[in-house]
């Protein structure tokens, strides 16, 4: 991965976006599988904590690879994380929200089929745009709003498979599942945009910001274990039910989180939404090529809507003239896509 502060090529951005998206697809499948398979059931709150631990260790390694010196790494962490508690504290907010979001994903996927989950979760495109307007004062024209709704409709169609909603999920509480996933969309929009605001509002490096956030993430994750699974963990142990698939969830969750942070640093949350969508289309097309899957009418319609959304988003607004940040965003979108 690129170090913080340096500019990166379009190819690197595409690489990070692709890894993030393919990894997310694998993560959902693994999570769904482990929550529905027979056998001892692990405590989902403990995997959230372990994911934060993995991300923290990886971020320290990335910082070390930037400094190429152990003492410089330790000094950087000491100065920016421990000697600057008020600045570190800013990362407490997104870490708590992400902790809630990551736990909600387990509740949602235990109560919904993967198709409903994936389609509904794309509403985060809209919540991200809303929070970008509120927190970053981003100007989004009417046409761009139409483009974002079109993008949501497009990606929803692309992800709809003929058998998406027919697979039965046992012990479901559909309402709980839907409320969880809608709340996760709000969390995703808010935490993503807040993280972007803090990251881009100072010179503090990405890896220091991540270390600050993951330290709080471990603490808030442990509070989650205490409030939800305390007695179970005391009785059966923290790692009860950890199969290789559960460890794979921890690794996939960590890779996804780290790549998300890189993508937000070098692009922005709205571009992340667009690019994720394109990667979803490309990965579906690849599975047509690799596994002989058929292209459905819905897929073609969805892909068409996504392309239309990209054109609409890049279209300059006539009145008022586009602000500097808008033209920059459109330029970035065109460059990234
Ligand atoms: O679905 P969404 O894109 O909002 O998910 C973002 C994921 O990336 C969350 O699981 C969050 O914990 C993770 N993340 C991270 N480090 C960041 C920003 C997000 O691990 N700096």
UniProtKB/TrEMBL annotation:
Chief place where the protein resides: membrane
Keyword annotations from UniProtKB, A to Z: Membrane, Sugar transport, Transmembrane, Transmembrane helix, Transport
Presence of keyword Plastid: no
Signal peptide coordinates: none
InterPro entries from the UniProt entry: EmrE-like, Nuc_sug_transpt
Transmembrane segments: 12-30, 42-64, 142-162, 174-195, 207-225, 245-264, 271-291, 297-315
Domain of life assignment: Eukaryota
Pfam families assigned: Nuc_sug_transp
Its membrane topology: Multi-pass membrane protein
Location of this chain's protein in the cell: Membrane
NCBIfam families documented for this protein: nst
Family: Belongs to the nucleotide-sugar transporter family. SLC35A subfamily.
Name recorded for this polypeptide: CMP-sialic acid transporter-like
Organism: Saccoglossus kowalevskii (Acorn worm)
Gene name per UniProt: LOC100375982
